[in-house]
Each structure stands twice: as C-alpha cells, then as structure tokens.
Amino acid sequence: MTDNLQLNAEGKLKHFLTIEGLSKSLLTEILDTAESFAGMSEHQVKKVPLLRGKTIVNLFFENSTRTRTTFELAATRLSADVINMNIATSATSKGESLLDTIRNLESMFVDMFVVRHALSGAAHFIAQQTAPHISVINAGDGQHAHPTQAMLDMFTIRQIKPDFSSLRVAIIGDILHSRVARSEIQALNTLGAAEVRVIAPKTLLPAHVESLGVTVSHNLTEGLKDIDVVMMLRLQKERMTSALLPSESEYFKCFGLTEEKLKIAKPDAIVMHPGPINRGVEIDSKVADGPQSVILKQVSNGIAVRMAVMAMAMQKQGVTA
Amino acid sequence: MMLRIDQGRIIDPANNIDRIGSVYIADGKIVSVTDEPVGFKPDTVIDAENQIVCPGFIDLSTRLRDMGHSRKATFKSEVLAAAAAGITTLCLQPDTVPVIDTPAVVELIKELAEKADYPQIYAVGGLTQKLDGAELSSMLSLKQAGCIAVGNANQPVKNLLILRRAMEYAASHDLLLMFRPNDFWLSNNGCAHEGAVATRYGLPSTPEAAETIALAQCLELAELTGCRVHFGQLSCKRSVIKIHQAKKYGLKVSADVAIHQLHLTENDMTPFDSAYHVLPPLRTEADKQYLRKGLAGSTLNSICSDHQPHDLDAKLGAFPETEPGMSSLETLLPLMLKLVTQHAITLEQGIACLSANPARVLRLNSGALTPGFSADVCIFDPEREWQVNSENWKSQGVNTPFWGQTLKGRVTHTLQAGRIIHRL
C-alpha cells in the first residue's frame, strides 16, 4: 500500500503527509535542500523571496508551541504570508466540521495548509478534499505521522554521523501513541540505517511492532548496547491514569535515560528528543543538557527542514528552491 | 391471483431441490414446485430460463435508519434496495432513533413498513431499556407487539450479572437473543483491527480478544440460563473455533458473518478510506479464510448484510471520527456468488445461508419453497454483470468500498408473499 497522494505526476512532492512511500532520493533531496537553507539563519538578512506572495495557513487543531513556531519562522524566512489558526479554540469548537473549516479557508485563496490534528488520517483527508493547487504539510496527525519532525531528526543525525548505513538507532518510550516514532522508523529504514531498535514496556508498543521494520527490547540496559543514536520520546502524564504504566518513578527507573545508562551506548552516541521534555520522567537533566545531547540543535534544524519541505511542495507553482 | 415461474433452475436447500422446473404460486403462497396443480390458470407468467429460482433472502442484521436518522436513509429508499437484492425479510436492529424498547416503537416500525409496501420487516427488541445495558426492557410486551428477538445491538451490557438476568428473562419468554459479541473495555474505541495495518497508520485498534472474550462469556451464560442465542457478525478465526466447540458440546447456538468479512481484510483498506470503516473491523487474511471455512462446515449458518447506510457527511472526516458501517444490501448476492466461484462454498450452501438457515434461526415458516409457505421468491441471473454506480444503486447510502466495481449476479425478480416487489 504505497501513498502516491503526496506526489504529482512527475514524482515531485505535492503534499508532505507521511514518510511512507517516499524514496530514498526524495528524502535525500529534502535533506540537501535543507542544507542550503541551514546557513541562512546566521546571516543578518534571514529571508529569501522564494514564496513571496504565497499565503500559508498554520492550521493547528491541537496545541503546539515548537512545531507551530518553527513552521511560522520557516514560512516567514521564505517571505510567505502566514496566518496562524488555533482551531482548538476556534471554529470547530462551535460545531463546524473539519471540511467546512477547510472550504472556508480555501475561499480566502491560500496556497498551503500546515495541519496538526489529534486524529490519524486528518492530513490525508484534507489533502484529498482540498483544491488541487493547495499543498498540505502534515505537522502531526494523531498517532500516525509527523514527517517534518522525522526529517529534521535525520538532518541532525546526518550533520554528525553522515553514513546512515552504519547506524544503530534506539527509539525509547511510548511508541504506541507516537506519530514521531512511526515517521522516524520509516525515515531511518528508507535511508538505510543498519538497525532501528525500539525499547519500551509491552504496554507502550503497538501490536506487531516488528512489522514496522524494527527490533524490539523491553530492557533499556540491554537495548542500549552498540547504539549510535538514542531517541527519547515524551511520556504523556495520562499514560499513568489509563493503566499503561504504574508510576512516573517506576518508568524513570526502568526506561529513564541517565548518564550511567547512556554509558552502555557507544561512547560517541548522540541523544535526541522531539520535545517537550519531561525532565526526570524519560530523561535526566544531566543527559538532556549534557555534551551528547543534540536536542536544541534539533529545534534550530527544524526551521531549515521545514523551509525545504515548504519550498519543494510549492515547486509545482513555479517555485525553485 | 395465480403466478407461475417458468423453467428456472430451482434451488431450494431446505427441500433438497436442485432441478429445472416451474414454481406455482396462488394467493401469496407456494402451491407446488415442478408438478403443475390441477386446474392451475396463471394470471402472470415469469420466464426464468437460464436463471436461478430460490427462496427470498432473509437478512438477520439491517439498519434502515429513518425516524431520527432519515437523512441517512428511509424505509422507502432501503426497501427498494432490499427488493432489488432479492431480500424478502429483514431484521431491524434495535439501535434506531428512538430505540426499539417499547411496543409503541414496534408499532411505528410496522406502520413505516406498511407505508413502504414492504411488510416483512421484523424488529429486534432492545434487551435493555434505551439499550443502556442496565435495566431490562419489557421483553414480553415487545414479543407480543411482534419483536422476533431481543438484543442490545452494538451497545454494551454493563456487567455479566445484568446479562445473566436479561438472558434468564428472555429464556422465560422463549425469546431469541441476538448478540454481537464485543467487550466494551477491550475494544477501547478502536476503529481498526489490532494488527500490522493499524500499527502502521497509527489507528486506534481493537484486538480479536474483544470479540472472543465476550463470546466466551455469553456462551457460558447460554449454558447457565438456557437462553437461545444467535451470535451476529463474527469476525475472526477464534470465534469460529469457539462456536464449533460450543455446538459440539451441545449448546443450542447459531452464528452469522457479515458478507464483507468474507471478502475484505485489513490489507484491503486504502489509507484512511472511510468506506472500509466497519465494526467489527476488517481483520486478517487468516481470519477471512477461517470464516469461509466456518460457513463451508456449517459452524456459521448464515450470512447477513450488516447493512448500515450513511449520509455523505458521516463518512467525510479523519478515519477515526467517521461513522462505521457499509451500505451492503445490494452487494449481498454478487458477493455470495463470488464465494461460490472461488470454491469457498457451494451454491446450495450460499443460498441456504441467505434463506433456509436464517429462517431456522428465527423460527419462521419461510426461507423455503415448501407448498403452503408464503411465496417469498428470488429469481436471479448468476452470470449477469453490473456496475455498482448511481444508475444501478437503490440504497440512499453509497458508502460501499465496492463502488465503481463490476460485480456478477443480478436479481431479476423478487416476490414477497406472491407479489412482485422488484423486476429488473
């Protein structure tokens, strides 16, 4: 089951909804394009006129600070006009349907939707329903996908460890509810990582998780052996109340990343986290702020990667990145 | 009023008939099969050459919407679809708006059925008031008003003690319980099968155990209470095994499967296409194959449509928020015939699963071409191809994943109590 909805007839990116179905060369093109934008942030003039005159709507049906801000900055640096819609507190709470919201915004001649939604498949649905000239970028849908997060993580990894084929990556924590994990796994496998390992208790792993192309461990101490990249996931507080875990402290004891446990991984291993961090729940502050952590690098790379994806998705409208 | 159906291939599983011949009908009843009664002078003759003549189909699980849901479908629209599908008797699940939990609602349904010119609609009464799963409905009054069985549709019964008492009470009045096994907690608001596909797409999912555990509990209570139980819309291998064991053990239970479960699996779902959103969810290839085996070996004795027409809005949205269910009356026969061409079951078995067997479940004197029975007859051309499109489709709900496909097998005539209610 491949997903061609996001590619146009020439195989170019039209929407960016999921990593699934995208080729290694296309993912590499995203990373290369991001590379060309990455230096820009340090310039005095941080803007290029690529998307001048284009209107981008940040359509956030779920709250987000980091993702929305970096999308907004990315769009601004491409000289697009940006509208932020916080739908969590807007039209749909008055009973307007997802489709009506989209139709109304379409009538305002927008060129791109950046969508975050609490339900899996929402970005696909919008891409299917929206006018053909509009591009849709998935900024996270339910438990399905968060492809720009995955790409900014790939970008961060590549800066430090350029050869994916030799990499062993561990993803630790709530895989079950994580759209980030699903997109990371697909991206790493497409880029040819040597191994993707998920480490979590059974309650936080989806059924047939190995079918995603991962090896599985329920033990952090064993699972961290030979690992080059340690990806921590955020643990939501509600996992405790829904009987998935007994307590934060027991979780930290078993799966929390401490300096001591990090020593089991390769000495030059890097530590990543998509944020926001729960200090003392999934990660110890000493590790989060330590020398092996690239967490803040991930955040700044988010801008370049999102610029790249936006510019590439607008290519069909004559934009060349 | 006399009617003769000429020279069709008559397949009547209940009477072990499979031969070319004529069916004779007078005053709404079957008079004779093959042998011409003395002095029979038909007012109407239907030429059924190269066609199959069989008992009209009996659907054990249907939603016609109407009343509070008439934007989705109405009795008028759906009985046309049923007639075009060769279906002559329908069982209406109790989760209508309002719920079928009082004799007044049963009367209202009868009235709507009369108005739609399709009287053979049987209401399944609510097992509990408002289907709340907590307080018993007035089952005897519902039975006296005409309910053919009781059930709680897709709503959970609060606990096993209430289910036990409801079953005891139903058994006291010799009422059949129609039960769709699903543990509310284990199903965890899932919209897809807990398997590789739901994992890949991050969809909230339901394991088979949600069905098999509820099934096992109800089987135990069937033994404890002596209640007759028919299990509806089973979806997985382990359910078939459990029914097989229970029957072998001697429990008086029966079970059906929805037609789409015999053809579609989780792998057929195109990403986030709400047409594939059904409950129980589409499961694995192994489950599908075992359900087919269950039919072939008579562990499952009936196929139902599980018809659930929806308006367009109900299916427009992110997959988990769309409403589950397919519009499936009109694809019932062609999909049953596909099972035959794929050698999963014989044609005789397929017809029995749609007529004689559901009639036995409901203890109806129909589902067979027995002289004296109501003349409910379906005549179909097994070779005739047709496309699922707006020109050929009668149901108001177009929510079918088979839309646009060409299917084989088309009903040419449907007779309900001797009256032609559909002619192609």
Automatic annotation (TrEMBL), chain A:
A GO cellular-component term linked to this record = cytosol
Spell out the coiled coil positions from the record: none
Q: What does this protein do?
A: Catalyzes the condensation of carbamoyl phosphate and aspartate to form carbamoyl aspartate and inorganic phosphate, the committed step in the de novo pyrimidine nucleotide biosynthesis pathway.
EC numbers listed for it are 2.1.3.2
- Full protein name: Aspartate carbamoyltransferase
Q: Give the NCBIfam families listed for this entry.
A: asp_carb_tr (TIGR00670), PRK00856.1 (NF002032)
Q: Where is the Aspartate/ornithine carbamoyltransferase Asp/Orn-binding domain?
A: 167-312
Q: Which top EC class is given?
A: transferase
Q: Which family does it belong to?
A: Belongs to the aspartate/ornithine carbamoyltransferase superfamily. ATCase family.
Q: Does the keyword Transferase apply?
A: yes
Question: Which reaction is this enzyme known to catalyze?
Answer: carbamoyl phosphate + L-aspartate = N-carbamoyl-L-aspartate + phosphate + H(+)
Pfam families (alphabetical): OTCace (PF00185), OTCace_N (PF02729)
Q: Which residues of this UniProt protein bind L-aspartate?
A: 94, 179, 234
What is the annotated quaternary arrangement, including any partners? Heterododecamer (2C3:3R2) of six catalytic PyrB chains organized as two trimers (C3), and six regulatory PyrI chains organized as three dimers (R2).
From TrEMBL, chain B:
Using the record's annotation, list all stretches that form the Dihydroorotase catalytic domain: 51-238
Q: Which CDD domains match?
A: DHOase_IIa
**Which keywords does this chain's UniProt record carry?**
Pyrimidine biosynthesis
Positions in coiled-coil regions: none
Molecular function as annotated in GO:
allantoinase activity; dihydroorotase activity; metal ion binding
Instruction: Tell me one Pfam family matched here.
Output: DHOase
**Highest taxon above the source species:** Bacteria
Assigned GO CC terms: cytoplasm
> Sorted alphabetically, which InterPro entries does this protein's record hold?
DHOase, DHOase/Allantoinase_Hydrolase, DHOase_cat, Metal-dep_hydrolase_composite, Metal_Hydrolase
Matches recorded under SUPFAM superfamilies: Composite domain of metallo-dependent hydrolases, Metallo-dependent hydrolases
Biological processes per GO annotation: purine nucleobase catabolic process; pyrimidine nucleotide biosynthetic process
Q: Which NCBIfam families match?
A: PRK07627.1, pyrC_multi
| Alphabetical list of PANTHER family matching this protein | ALLANTOINASE
- Know the name of this protein? Dihydroorotase, multifunctional complex type
Q: Which organism is it from?
A: Methylobacter tundripaludum (strain ATCC BAA-1195 / DSM 17260 / SV96)
